[in-house]
Design brief:
mainly alpha; metalloendopeptidase activity; membrane
């Protein structure tokens, strides 16, 4: 089987794998390994799909992708007929669309966060009772972080200070600081960009929802290193009952994902799933193989 056929098979397999993984619950016991597997599937789908198209386009040169593209450029694609030219246009077009949409998502979120930070400078205040946190004078429940390289902000509302007791508030703040520290926004960015490219495909939306839930669970795990799980669980239930407003664009909130996701996280906090080291190792090893295999196939002839 040629490299091009293998790349096409991997591209199809990643779609099937994403469908299965989006309906699986075992990643809830190891959210970081699950996130790594999702990232590997996304990367493999992109590189394999583009590789299959480009591999078919340069098939007349018989040198694989890495050898065939320079050979094609050197003779101005003289050997390519209409089907191979169409594959070349599709491969380069898909590459351009994915890169442009990713760049657009980065710029859009950067601008939204910059505007929101400017707004926070005007309407939010620092509080001695919650050091390192900005407080909005708003009666509704709100708690979120605005990520950034050097300017991440954790924001709570006055309504949140009234809603939660001190232990619950500390647990929520630990959760939000975990988002900022581990830069979960960067994990979400490619999946959010992919949904913009394929907004009508339900599987893409389910992939984003699954990654969002795993990110929240990873932040929960980080928070419970310092706080009792019950504190965060009761805080989440109070937030869900208070029906907090939607968070600003580009921010990450403790109650992201809706009521069903919150209930799943509460159940997980109260009854933690058993840690399975062998499954975690297999997931991480599988993620490595899935991410690397398509790139290696670029060097295979045909």
């Amino acid at each position: 089987m040629t490299g091009t056929a293998l790349l096409a098979l991997i591209a199809l397999s990643t779609v099937g794998g994403a469908h299965v993984l989006s309906r699986s619950r075992w990643p809830w016991s190891m959210p970081r390994a699950g996130i790594a597997l999702w990232q590997a599937l996304g990367l493999a789908w992109g590189t394999a799909t583009i590789g299959a198209l480009l591999g078919y386009a340069v098939l007349p040169y018989g040198q694989g992708i890495t050898g065939g593209i320079p050979a094609m450029l050197s003779d101005d694609a003289a050997r390519l007929d209409a089907p191979h030219l169409a594959a070349l246009l599709a491969g380069t077009g898909l590459t351009a669309v994915l890169l442009v949409m990713l760049a657009y998502a980065v710029v859009r979120i950067y601008r939204a966060r910059r505007r929101h930070r400017a707004l926070l400078a005007l309407v939010a205040n620092k509080s001695a009772t919650v050091p390192g946190t900005l407080v909005l004078d708003h009666p509704g429940a709100a708690a979120y972080c605005v990520p950034g390289m050097r300017s991440s902000k954790v924001v709570v509302s006055a309504g949140t200070l009234e809603l939660l007791d001190s232990a619950e508030l500390a647990a929520v703040l630990a959760h939000e600081r975990a988002h900022a520290r581990e830069r979960h926004d960067l994990v979400l960015l490619p999946f959010a960009s992919l949904r913009q490219v394929f907004p009508q495909i339900g599987l893409v939306g389910r992939c984003l929802d699954s990654v969002e839930l795993l990110i929240e669970m990873a932040a929960d795990d980080r928070a419970r290193r310092h706080r009792a799980p019950r504190e965060l669980a009761t805080a989440l239930l109070r937030f869900a009952a208070a029906r907090p407003a939607a968070v600003p664009n580009g921010a990450l909130a403790a109650t992201s994902g809706g009521e069903i996701a919150v209930l799943a996280r509460v159940n997980r906090l109260m009854e933690p799933p058993p840690a399975r080291r062998r499954v975690r190792f297999a997931a991480l090893a599988g993620a490595t193989v899935i991410a690397v295999a398509p790139i290696l196939l670029y060097h295979l002839p045909g």
